[in-house]
């Protein structure tokens, strides 16, 4: 996808997140070409180090700039290539069956698609090896967080830390654990998809969650309340002579305003 300076430039100085919602740093620079198209972005991490990332790793969603991990980008590219090759091979078979292409032409094209498929399988195997390393890192991260949670429970039970401190640190750890476990599940889904990507029956394979950018959590909704009636009584100004009216309360003396009608106004 082509992104222009106008599209990305407005996010300069803002925090960039990954697909799991983790902050990565501030967007501090853009690398562009003469067509005003962005080719790479520079992100400054909290320690001050500036890292450049290809624009292919960037997704724009819900007015946010998301930087995808390399394994997500590679898996998405493999899926796109696989879908194209499958469609073309099916179309080629149909052309042969309908007599719209001769056998030598069919054989040549079929061979080129098979060679391309072998190249995809090689990239798939390399990606599966990389995913295994990411899985190991996440497993260790999850184990470390669970160990920290246990230690904090121990400190709290022995009154070495107060309740407020315990609640604060526990919320942080549980949040990190949730993100790590979701990413671990994403990798498992991606692994399953990649293993079955060259299955003869591709119609049953569903694109895993990992190949889609996560959306930010929905904003909390305010519970609906029953419309209340507010009675507003007319008052007679002391400085203005009002026409004589019936002082007995009736329907014309009280204006009932419903909150749901106000919301529609």
Kindly summarize this structure in a few lines.
The protein is α+β, with helices and mostly antiparallel strands and 265 residues long. It is 48% helix and 17% strand. The strands form 2 sheets. It has a 6-stranded mixed β-sheet with strand order 4-3-2-1-6-5. It has a two-stranded antiparallel ribbon with strand order 7-8.
Textual characterization of the structure:
The protein is α+β, with helices and mostly antiparallel strands. It folds into two domains: 5-68, PRC-barrel domain (SH3 type barrels, Roll), CATH 2.30.30.240; 71-199. The protein has helices spanning 5-9, 70-97, 103-157, 163-195, 259-264; strands at 15-18, 23-32, 38-44, 50-54, 58-61, 64-67, 229-233, 254-258. It has a six-stranded mixed β-sheet with strand order 4-3-2-1-6-5. It has a two-stranded antiparallel ribbon with strand order 7-8. A hairpin with a 5-residue loop joins β2 (23-32) and β3. α3 (103-157) runs antiparallel to α4. The longest helix is centred in the middle third of the chain and has 55 residues, at 103-157. It starts with a helix and ends with a helix. Residues 207-265 have low confidence and may be disordered.
List the helices and strands and how they pair.
Layout: H1 5-9, E1 15-18, E2 23-32, E3 38-44, E4 50-54, E5 58-61, E6 64-67, H2 70-97, H3 103-157, H4 163-195, E7 229-233, E8 254-258, H5 259-264
Parallel strand pairs: 1-6
Antiparallel strand pairs: 1-2, 2-3, 3-4, 5-6, 7-8
Helix pairs in contact: 2-3, 3-4
